[in-house]
TrEMBL record:
CDD domains in the record: DLC-like_TCTEX1D
Protein family according to the UniProt entry: Belongs to the dynein light chain Tctex-type family.
Pfam family, one: Tctex-1
Top-level taxon: Eukaryota
Native organism: Megaselia scalaris
Gene3D superfamilies xref list: Tctex-1
GO biological process, one term: microtubule-based movement
One Gene Ontology term, aspect cellular component: cytoplasmic dynein complex
Protein name: Dynein light chain
One Gene Ontology molecular-function label: dynein intermediate chain binding
PANTHER family (alphabetical): AT23443P, T-COMPLEX-ASSOCIATED-TESTIS-EXPRESSED 1/ DYNEIN LIGHT CHAIN
Record lineage: Eukaryota, Metazoa, Ecdysozoa, Arthropoda, Hexapoda
Length: 113
């Protein structure tokens, strides 16, 4: 007789994403890196990279992390669209503002097996 096995793949994560923990990590990374920050285009570019790397190291999940630093001067709008499983996937945003600049972190997390 031919042996038949049931599928062994998981449709859900064993450890669901912890939004509260991720939000705390993002806030802490921003606090640590923006304490003495003075806006400058070249420095902002490097800081965006550094902040997103710090968040990546501290949060364990499949994700994309966007960090935008901009001067408060004639801003434009931006938009993102997503197609995902709302039970396992989602996003977080955190905005840090001063009179001179803003920092927007958008953190998108997805379950992938």
């Amino acid at each position: 007789p031919v042996l038949r096995y049931a599928p062994t793949y998981r449709l859900e994560s064993k450890k669901p994403f912890n939004r509260e923990k991720a939000e705390n990590v993002i806030k802490k990374v921003l606090e640590e890196n923006l304490e003495d920050f003075v806006y400058g285009p070249k420095h902002a570019t490097n800081l965006c990279k550094h902040i997103s790397e710090e968040i990546k190291i501290r949060i364990k999940y499949k994700y994309v992390c966007f960090v935008t630093i901009g001067e408060k001067f004639l801003q434009d709008n931006c938009m993102m669209n997503f197609l995902w499983d709302s039970n396992n996937d989602g996003f977080l945003t955190h905005l840090h503002e001063t009179p001179e600049y803003f920092v927007l972190v958008t953190f998108i997390y997805t379950y992938y097996d």
